Amino acid sequence: MTKHHASAIGVFLVAQVFAALVPNLVARAAGVPPAQTAPSAAPPIAPQPESLKVVLLGTGVGPMVNQEQYGASILVEAGGQRLLFDCGRGATLRLAQAGIPIGSVSRVFLTHLHSDHVIQLPDLLLVGWAAGRRAVPLAVWGPAGTRDMMSHLQQAFAFDIHVRRDVDEHFPAAGITVVSHDIKEEGVVLDENGLRVTAFLVDHGVVGPAFGYRVDYGGRSVLLSGDTRVSENLIRHARGVDVLIHEAIDPEMLRTRPDRPSPAIIDAIIAHHTTPEQAGTVFRRVAPRLAVYSHAPNTARVLAQTRTTYRGPLQGAEDLLTIHIGNEVRVEHHPLQALIASKAR
Ligand SMILES: [Zn+2]
Ligand SMILES: [Zn+2]
Fold first, then answer.
1. Low-confidence residues of the chain, pLDDT below 50?
2. 207 Cα: distance to centroid of ligand 2 (angstroms)
3. Which ligand is nearest to the CA of 206?
4. pTM of the prediction?
5. What is d(CA 121, CA 80) in angstroms, rounded to the nearest whole number?
């Protein structure tokens, strides 16, 4: 199968899921007026505002440079709060493309400290302050080592911080401070005005501790796997979740990677992650309203392999995809994605 065919099938599969899930969006996009209903005695029920919004900023896998799928990063908006989960390569660029001011992100949750999940943090920290006018501290939650990493970043950029804070622009000092939280054990890490973030341990092989996160707000929920192989703990924490966002790797893609990893390295990578067939079994057991890939190749093969074990609603790993979680779960493809996909062919 050529890559072109694979992409076409992928688009078809995703489009099928998309159309099945979001007839209202399709109708709206096509300019179709909403269906008229006969008057009744009961007052109309006002549509509930969507209570959780998720934007997949970067859905790529691992440290390799990937121009179609940027580094791991997911934004969740709920209750007027913006929460960023991981900050991989290109996260700040994707924020700009999604129309989200960089300075408006002041809360970051890290799944683990692999560089592909944190490498854009200096940009968020420094540019969110200097160009984004963030005037409040950057709050960062993550596994042991997070506090050290953030304080070392401040040391590394001491010159820029000093000049812009004390000498030249005199930007507010609060905006370039960091409040770091090393998460010592799993549990609720943020509970504020009905918005709850729960960290739970996942199984990233020898790379630990590694966390996944669940966000609950207004009776809606989303769970982010972080990097993990099949995790019973994740399945426990995912009970009743609306949207499950899970990672996957493609062993065949690993074997044909340009840098030709050795069989031992390939085996180690596979042992740290989840294959699409395995992810399908996780999706089947959790039965979310929508299963979504992120930190996974955006290919027809991943979707097809998932289909050997899971028949429910499924969305591939697509940068800048927005997921609205309310009465319906609705996905919105970013206009840039068409450009990204056409360049990938
Ligand atoms: Zn990773
Ligand atoms: Zn990792």
1. 1-48
2. 7
3. 2
4. 0.85
5. 22
What domains can you pick out in the chain, each with its CATH number?
Answer: 49-344 (3.60.15.10)
Q: Which ligand is nearest to the CA of 210?
A: 2
Per-residue model confidence (pLDDT) at position 288: 98
Class of residue 205 by CB neighbours under 10 A (exposed 0-12, middle 13-18, buried 19+)? middle
CA of 83 to the centre of ligand 2 (A): 20
> How far is Cα 61 from Cα 95, in angstroms, rounded to an integer?
19
Cα of 227 from ligand 1 centre, angstroms: 5
The CA 273 to ligand 1 mean position distance, Å, reads 9
Catalytic residue among 116, 123, 216, 227: 116
- The one-letter amino acid code at 184 reads K
| Chain centre distance of CA 217 | 17
Tokens matching residue 127: 């540019």
Stretch (H or E) spanning 28: helix 23-29
Cα–Cα nearest to 146, from 186, 117, 106: 117
In angstroms, how far is the first alpha carbon of the chain from the final one? Answer: 13
